[in-house]
Structures are given as structure tokens and as C-alpha cells.
Write a structure and sequence with these properties.
There is one protein chain. The chain is of the alpha/beta class. The protein has ten helices and twelve strands. An eight-stranded parallel β-barrel has the order 1-4-5-6-7-10-11-12, surrounded by six helices.
Length: 239
């Protein structure tokens, strides 16, 4: 299982949000480039970087910063936040970004996202579907979790037969360090066998890692709050 240490950027600074709320921000002093260097030194092959300003505003806000980081990063970057046009993706790939994450647009404009996948390749695009569990059913939220799409996780995934990567976030657990939703993740792996699924949200301790059935896991707050080290997580995931 691949570990993706997460770095969220707000105004060029490293932060974490609780449940996606911009009124619940924790700020860290670490320089973004130094954080990426630390991830690589700990043994990470990838990092997950989010432009929170872009995600909130639904347009590029820190893409130039992310491109600069990618040009000098000692590991592969998977980047998210405000990617809605082909030119946005081209900038990232030209800078050396390994994979771009598409969230709300995958629900709102599936034809455009299918064209991204067709043009850049399934390995360069990851779908990110954030869900609220409603009566046991994962319902996809959009617009920074502020809106409900009315579609299930399975209905949206079915729109993308050529997709290769999918991030699944249980909104209720993101940033809360309450443990991952293992039932949801197991169902996703079983129902979507052609997708490399990344678990996102809720990792609280090293004990959460061995039970994950996914190809990858994104870890944010637990690392930033020093609940365990990235090196420890990589070792546990590799067992």
C-alpha cells in the first residue's frame, strides 16, 4: 500500500482543515518545499498537495506555487484544487506533476473529465469523490462539501470506464482522526476492482493502516500533529 503524505496550502502556507471547514484552520510554520523534502527523506515516493484556495474558489489560486514546488520536488506530486480546464492540467504536467486530482468537476461535467482522461491518460488523472453516508449509502458532495450532488459514489464511478485512480473521502471522518471508514472502503474495492483506490480521511494511528484494503492512503493531520512519523507509516504499510 502506498502512503501519500498530504500537504494542504492556504495562502501559500501549510494548514489543515477539520471536515473541510475554512473556519476551522490549523496553521503550521513548515515551509512547503521543506515539507516535501522531509517527506522524501522519510521514504515517500509521492505526496498529495492541495490548493485549498483553488478548491474553495473553483479556479486556480496557487497553481503557480504548486508548479514551482513540482519543478524542484524530490518526489512525485499528486495535486488537487481548482483544476477545471485543460490549460490548468497542462501547466501541472509541464512542471513535472505526476497526477492531477479532479473533484467536483467529475460530477458536474463528466464529458470534460472523460476528455481529460482520454487526452492525458488514466494514470495522470485521479477522480476524488467525497461522500456523506446517508442511511448507509455514500452520497457524493461537491463544491468543497457545501453542495449535495444527489448521486451515489457508485453512480459517479460508473461514468468513468477508463479511469484508473479514485480517492474516496468520508467527509464525516476527514481531519477528525477518528479512524477510516473500513466498511465503505472495502465495498469500494469490491465494487470497483479496476480502480486503484486511495483512502482519505480519518487516519489516527498506525493501527489504522494494516486493515486498509486500498492501494493507497492519504495521511494528513496525524502526521502534522505528530501522532506518528511518516517513516513509521511507510514501514507498517509495507508489511
Amino acid at each position: 500500500m502506498l502512503i501519500y503524505p498530504a500537504m494542504d496550502l492556504l495562502g501559500g502556507r501549510c494548514v489543515r482543515l477539520s471536515q473541510g471547514r475554512f473556519d476551522a484552520v490549523t496553521r503550521y510554520l513548515t515551509d512547503p518545499a521543506e515539507a516535501l523534502a522531509g517527506f522524501a527523506a522519510a521514504g515517500a515516493a509521492w505526496a498529495h498537495v492541495v490548493d485549498l484556495d483553488g478548491a474553495r474558489d473553483r479556479s486556480p489560486r496557487q497553481h503557480e506555487l504548486i508548479a514551482e514546488l513540482a519543478r524542484n520536488a524530490p518526489l512525485q506530486l499528486q495535486v488537487a484544487g481548482g483544476f477545471r480546464e485543460r490549460a490548468h492540467l497542462e501547466l501541472m504536467f509541464e512542471a513535472g506533476v505526476g497526477r492531477v486530482v479532479i473533484g467536483s468537476l467529475a460530477v458536474q461535467q463528466p464529458q470534460a473529465v472523460r476528455e481529460f482522461i482520454g487526452g492525458f491518460g488514466g494514470d495522470r488523472i485521479a477522480l476524488a469523490l467525497d461522500v456523506n453516508i446517508v442511511e448507509g449509502v455514500p452520497m457524493v458532495a461537491t463544491a468543497g462539501w457545501a453542495e449535495t450532488s444527489g448521486l451515489t459514489l457508485w453512480e459517479v464511478a460508473d461514468l468513468y470506464p477508463d479511469a484508473r485512480h479514485l480517492l474516496v473521502t468520508d467527509i464525516g471522518r476527514d481531519g477528525m482522526m477518528s479512524g477510516p471508514n473500513l466498511e465503505l472502503l472495502a465495498e469500494a474495492v469490491a465494487r470497483l476492482p479496476d480502480l486503484a483506490i486511495q483512502a482519505s480521511g480519518g487516519i489516527a494511528s498506525l493501527d489504522d493502516l494494516p486493515g486498509l484494503p486500498t492501494a493507497g492512503v492519504i495521511i494528513g493531520k496525524a502526521l502534522w500533529e505528530q501522532k506518528f512519523t511518516l517513516g513509521e507509516a511507510i514501514r507498517v504499510a509495507g508489511r
